[in-house]
């Protein structure tokens, strides 16, 4: 795992602007992070994770390695914005979902509308099966999604975000979503026309069936 010696893994604070230069807007910083993530995925896919250096990622974007390390603590975390971007879109969709309709419907709906937007996410998730450091990044993002989802559930149900109700419902729905994405990315069947929307729908139905009911 390639690390920058001056960074602490897990620290995703925005880089500090250099003296004499105007600070980038938050939207521009997010755009830069996403550009780095997409370039990294392409190189990981073409060369493999171990064979890809931070210098090659920086060169492909026309930036310095120093600039790259100002945004990320490790090479594997370069792809994190791609994963968080997808989950952030889902959370925004869930927050705006009508209160009289189940959240599970929203998850299925966004899966159906994702289209090709998730092809790079699929590539990354496939790699997590054999790359422990990359899997750690993926699981960290998934955990953050589950905690944010608990806030959405709490507001809709009028309960505390740290209540058992919010925690269990968010874990069930978030876990179904993560399991669906992994199944879609990992299974050979996904290459035979099975869509993410179909897998998400099945996962949500299985989660809704409960622990003690055989859904088959």
From TrEMBL:
Is Nucleotide-binding among the key words of this record?
A: no
One of the entry's Gene Ontology molecular-function terms is: transcription cis-regulatory region binding
Q: Which portions of this protein are annotated as coiled-coil regions?
A: none
- Domain (HTH tetR-type): residue spans on this chain: 30-90
Keywords for this protein: DNA-binding, Transcription, Transcription regulation
Q: Name one Pfam family in it.
A: TetR_N
Q: What is this protein called?
A: TetR/AcrR family transcriptional regulator
Keyword DNA-binding part of the UniProt annotation: yes
Q: Which PANTHER family match?
A: HTH-TYPE TRANSCRIPTIONAL REGULATOR RUTR, MYCOFACTOCIN BIOSYNTHESIS TRANSCRIPTIONAL REGULATOR MFTR-RELATED
Q: Where is the composition biased (Low complexity)?
A: 13-23
Q: Where is this region: Disordered?
A: 1-26
Where's DNA bound on this chain? 53-72
